[in-house]
């Protein structure tokens, strides 16, 4: 019985609290207070994720023109996707993801140019 009385007391106390005015949330503030700060009124700071495919070459067989690439877990390439190979910031080749893949590594065919262990593989 006491539990039921306490429950209804808390329920009524919660209902008696003043509700926020929905119009107050949509009201814009004076823009002069944010001048020069580089922010928009009402915007929240946040970070955006880089969803580009980016990996490294871990093994190369130049005679058979295939390689094995390693990617972070957050973004893996799909089969038949074409990626560019970069060494020291310069494009040196192009690969096509063919598989098979295991965990974060996947094989690909060298379509143009060359690749060495340690090269960066990414989509553009």
Describe the structure.
- 16% of the residues lie in helices and 35% in strands.
- The chain has two helices and six strands, in the order ααββββββ.
- 15% of the residues are buried.
- It has helices at 2-16, 22-26; strands at residues 54-61, 66-70, 82-87, 90-102, 105-113, 120-122.
- With 124 residues, the protein is of the alpha+beta class.
CATH architecture name of the domain at 54-122? Beta Barrel
- Poorly predicted residue ranges: none
Provide the spatial order of strands within the biggest beta sheet.
1-2-5-4-3-6
* Range of strand content: 35-45%
What is the overall number of helices?
Answer: 2
Number of E strands: 6
CATH class of the domain at 54-122: Mainly Beta
- What is the H/E order? HHEEEEEE
Q: Strand count, sense and closure of the main sheet?
A: 6 strands, antiparallel, barrel
Helix content class: 10-25%
Label the overall shape.
Answer: elongated
Q: Specify the structural class.
A: alpha+beta
Remind me, CATH topology of the domain at 54-122? Thrombin, subunit H
Radius of gyration: 28 Å
Average pLDDT figure: 80
Distance between the first and last residues' Cα: 68 Å
Helices and strands in order:
Elements: H1 2-16, H2 22-26, E1 54-61, E2 66-70, E3 82-87, E4 90-102, E5 105-113, E6 120-122
Antiparallel strand pairs: 1-2, 1-6, 2-5, 3-4, 3-6, 4-5
């Amino acid at each position: 019985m006491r539990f039921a009385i306490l429950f209804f007391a808390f329920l009524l106390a919660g209902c008696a609290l003043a509700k926020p005015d929905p119009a107050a949330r949509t009201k814009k503030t004076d823009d002069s207070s944010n001048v020069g700060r580089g922010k928009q009124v009402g915007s929240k700071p946040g970070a955006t994720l880089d969803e580009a495919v980016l990996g490294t070459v871990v093994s190369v067989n130049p005679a058979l023109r295939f390689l094995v690439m390693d990617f972070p877990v957050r973004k893996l390439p799909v089969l038949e996707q074409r990626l560019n190979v970069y060494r020291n910031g310069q494009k040196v080749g192009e690969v096509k993801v063919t598989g098979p893949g295991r965990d974060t590594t996947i094989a690909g065919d060298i379509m143009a140019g060359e690749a060495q262990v340690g090269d960066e593989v990414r989509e553009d």
